[in-house]
Here is the input.
Amino acid sequence: MIKPLDADKEIARLGQLIDQSENIVVVTHMSPDGDAIGSSTAFRGVMETLGKDVRIVIPDMMLESLRKVPGSKEVIDAKRYPDFARKLIADADLIVCLDFNTPERVAQLGKHILEAQAPKVLIDHHLHPADFAEVTISRPEMSSTCYLLFKVLCALGLFPNLDRDTATDILTGMMTDTGNFSYNASDPEIYVVVSELMKLGADKEGIYRHQFNTDSLDAIRLNSFALLERMKVWPEYGAALIRLTREELNRFHYTKGDTEGLVNRPLAIPGIVYSMFMREEDDYVKVSMRSLGEVPVNRMCADHFGGGGHLNAAGGEYRGTLDSAVELFKSLLKPNLKKYSKEIHDAKKL
Ligand code: 5GP
Ligand code: MN
Here is the structure.
């Protein structure tokens, strides 16, 4: 059985807002992922069965692989079409914000959303939602916005309006935000929802193939090079670092998404409990961290690398050269071990 959402007031108001709207704009976060695109396209698909006109606006380009998500071809990239995106938001009857918690996560669109006359709805699973929407349905304990959206649609009485494509959209986010059900995936209810989506014909194999198991030859070579030549591990500190210069990235014709998941690889080594990947950009270094157990990479990123994120997955932008970022990481190994000795010790036993 699927537990009720326990948001009667919010659902009632959301139902009214949908009834009153003709033009709905859906907005999702920067560098949209499978959950962002899947929840947006599923929401649009269901709204279209009610005769609504729905546009999806994204702050910047999405990964090529996400073009395989049903309905994702018709999204508007606000970086390419800023005036059009601004006008759509300004003219909307209803603005639905999916898979992000604060206006900062949608870059320049945040300002337009806050200025728009239309009522706003936020449906999301990140911690600390900002208070800007008339209806906020925030469930940080849920593994994906798609999973939450499924329950919202059920609560609205719209389960019968789902079809094969919208079921595939929802399953996409549920799979991508849990690494294909390998983390944040212990809630038994997830599998009840998956079962319902499969009954609707969701294309699970297609999602796996396109979102998890498709790489260009260049990407395979770049990742292999990075692991062979540019990964350093410090077993005594439980740490690993992978670094790639711009020149190296260019050599393998790097495009966005090519190194997705690379930062996780060192965590497969027994005893390695946190890992950083550094990618040299033109005027900064993009860092990405992952960890096991209670090792708080969000704090490491926030304290030293201009970023933040979740306990086990975080990132940031370091202002300086790649070499100085590497030196900083190395200089933190000992202090980290001291500061997080219990967390590192416990994680090593996982
Ligand atoms: P990724 O390593 O996949 O780029 O990011 C993992 C998580 O780290 C994201 O979901 C986000 O919460 C956080 N994150 C990544 N980059 C940044 C950043 O530059 N600033 C902050 N505050 N968080 C980030
Ligand atoms: Mn998400």
In short: The chain has a mean pLDDT of 97. Residues 322-339 form the longest helix (18 residues). Residues 288, 307-310, 313-317 surround guanosine-5'-monophosphate (ligand 1) (CB under 6 Å). The chain has 13 helices and twelve strands.
